[in-house]
């Protein structure tokens, strides 16, 4: 009975909320929305034109409050650029603790814009940046780290096997005939050793350059 009473109260409360929502149909929010119909096509055409001109360095979208400037920008980014963009917000600026907006200079604004770009971009894409970022230890990161380590360790193991075949291959209980054939193949071992050394050196330098 207690369970039935809870279900009944939940249904009644939902009806009250739905009725209250229906009474507010005439209201709308000013938050940016993604629009995909033809109403934004003239704005998209104007932005496409601006982006195709090499001499255009700055693009501004102006209009009164609530006119839909952010909606046009967000809809265009989602339609044309997908995820290939970075947002920079004036609200995120931290300008030396100054509270007076009249004291802001160009160098501080440029530094704040640069910091936002560097913080929001992946560290792997900007390996020379000195700014430390909080890395997301997700499955993709772990997989990438695994293959990076494997690309360094695997050539080194193979190189050690080629240079010292008797010590390494004896651990696998190979037949003496097979073991002697590998040991006596000196020219082939030399060529393989050089190739593996170059591969190992390449991956070591690659990992070190990202550190």
Automatic annotation (TrEMBL):
<dbReference type="GO" id="GO:0003677">
    <property type="term" value="F:DNA binding"/>
</dbReference>
<feature type="transmembrane region" description="Helical">
    <location>
        <begin position="190"/>
        <end position="208"/>
    </location>
</feature>
<dbReference type="InterPro" id="IPR048428">
    <property type="entry name" value="YobI-NTPase"/>
</dbReference>
<keyword id="KW-0812">Transmembrane</keyword>
<feature type="transmembrane region" description="Helical">
    <location>
        <begin position="142"/>
        <end position="164"/>
    </location>
</feature>
<dbReference type="Pfam" id="PF20693">
    <property type="entry name" value="YobI-ATPase"/>
</dbReference>
<keyword id="KW-0472">Membrane</keyword>
<dbReference type="InterPro" id="IPR027417">
    <property type="entry name" value="P-loop_NTPase"/>
</dbReference>
<feature type="domain" description="YobI-like P-loop NTPase">
    <location>
        <begin position="43"/>
        <end position="208"/>
    </location>
</feature>
<keyword id="KW-0238">DNA-binding</keyword>
<keyword id="KW-1133">Transmembrane helix</keyword>
<protein>
    <submittedName>
        <fullName>DNA-binding protein</fullName>
    </submittedName>
</protein>
């Amino acid at each position: 009975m207690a369970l039935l009473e809870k279900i009944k109260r939940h249904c009644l409360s939902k009806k009250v909320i739905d009725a209250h929502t229906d009474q507010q149909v005439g209201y709308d929010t000013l938050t940016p929305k993604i629009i995909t119909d033809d109403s934004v096509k003239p704005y998209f055409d104007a932005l496409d034109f601006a982006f195709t001109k090499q001499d255009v360095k700055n693009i501004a979208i102006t209009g009164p409050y609530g006119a839909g400037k952010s909606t046009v920008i967000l809809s265009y980014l989602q339609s044309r650029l997908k995820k290939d963009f970075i947002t920079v917000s004036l609200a995120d600026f931290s300008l030396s603790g100054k509270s007076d907006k009249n004291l802001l200079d160009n160098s501080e604004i440029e530094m704040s814009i640069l910091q936002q770009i560097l913080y929001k971009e992946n560290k792997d894409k900007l390996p020379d940046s000195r700014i430390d970022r909080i890395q997301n230890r997700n499955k993709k990161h772990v997989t990438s780290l695994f293959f990076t380590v494997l690309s360094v360790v695997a050539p080194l193991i193979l190189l050690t096997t080629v240079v010292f075949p008797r010590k390494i291959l004896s651990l696998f209980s190979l037949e003496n005939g097979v073991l002697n054939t590998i040991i006596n193949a000196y020219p082939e071992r030399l060529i393989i050793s050089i190739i593996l050394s170059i591969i190992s050196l390449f991956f070591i330098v690659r990992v070190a350059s990202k550190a």
